[in-house]
Structures are given as structure tokens and as C-alpha cells.
Design a protein that fits this description.
alpha/beta, Rossmann fold, five-stranded parallel β-sheet, 5 strands
């Protein structure tokens, strides 16, 4: 199988973007990129530290700059940070050079997946289903606007999700 443009995976944190991106990239024999990991590597500090030191807006600008660079690179499978689709500029860039796939999960599923993690600055002090649900409600319109395709990840293995995406593409 050959990939002619990027595949961007968007959606709320904990919906499986990083895991699915790795497996999907293997299916297409292309590079997989995790935008959060890429920014951490470039900035030589954790996302939590970037948020604390420079604020969320600075982090969002780093995401946009990364997308602009990726636009010029060979097709890859790209797992986007949970807030990537909140900026219209990011949506425009992704749509101009790839297919945008929204992975979804219920707030309860998200909570089960992320409840023991400490590297989610948006959830620090708010690790509960109600807060996750409220934040998902705010972000879902952006994800919907960005996405070309939606794939549900609840009660589905990463391999099954990859198979669904391959069939769609």
C-alpha cells in the first residue's frame, strides 16, 4: 500500500492516536510522527514545562510551526496532540496536505485510559469524568470541523481501528 498524502489523527487525549499512528504507519511502511513527542524533543522540555513556563498559546504556536514543516515532508502518519484542531490555521494546514481522521471515545473510556498519567497538563487537578466530558464538549466541534472521517475507539483494539482506517482510505 502506498500513501500519497499525510494521515492526521485528531481527537481528544487518550483516544488512541499515538498507538494507532504507530501501527498504521507500519501498514503503509511510512514514518509515524507524534506531534507532542516531536515538540518535546525540539524544545528539550516536557509539555507540562512548556505550559508552565510559556503558556498554552505558545505551545499552540509550536504546533502550527511543526505542521508547516511537516506539510513539506514525505507522507507520514501523524498523531496530533489533543488540542491541535482547536486552531483554524492548523485545520487548514492539515486539510491542505492530508486526510484528517478523528478518533473518538466516551469520557468514561478516556478517563480509564488516562487516569494514572501525570503528563496531561490540561487535566492536572481535574482528573475526573465530568471535567473530561466538559472539555470534550468544547473541543468536539473543532474535531468535527477538522475531520474527514470519524472512527470510534471504544471497546476496539488498536489493530481493529487500523483495519477500519485502511479500509476507509
Amino acid at each position: 500500500m502506498e500513501l500519497h498524502k499525510h494521515i492526521f489523527l485528531v481527537g481528544f487525549m487518550g483516544c488512541g492516536k499515538s498507538t494507532v499512528a504507530k501501527l498504521l504507519s507500519e501498514s503503509y511502511n511510512v514514518r509515524h510522527i507524534d506531534t507532542d513527542a516531536e515538540i518535546v524533543n525540539e524544545q528539550k522540555m516536557s509539555i507540562a514545562d512548556i505550559f508552565e513556563r510559556y503558556g498554552e498559546e505558545h505551545f499552540r504556536k509550536l504546533e502550527t510551526n511543526l505542521l508547516l514543516r511537516l506539510k513539506e515532508e514525505a507522507p507520514a502518519v501523524i498523531a496530533c496532540g489533543g488540542g491541535m484542531a482547536v486552531r483554524d490555521a492548523n485545520i487548514d494546514i492539515m486539510k491542505s496536505c492530508g486526510t484528517v481522521i478523528m478518533l473518538t471515545a466516551t469520557p468514561e473510556t478516556i478517563y480509564k485510559r488516562v487516569r494514572h498519567q501525570t503528563d496531561r497538563p490540561i487535566l492536572n487537578g481535574h482528573m475526573n469524568v465530568e471535567y473530561i466530558s466538559d472539555l470534550m464538549d468544547k473541543r468536539t466541534p473543532y474535531y468535527n470541523r477538522a475531520s474527514d472521517v470519524k472512527v470510534t475507539t471504544d471497546n476496539t483494539s488498536p489493530e481493529e481501528i487500523v483495519q477500519k482506517i485502511v479500509e476507509i482510505i
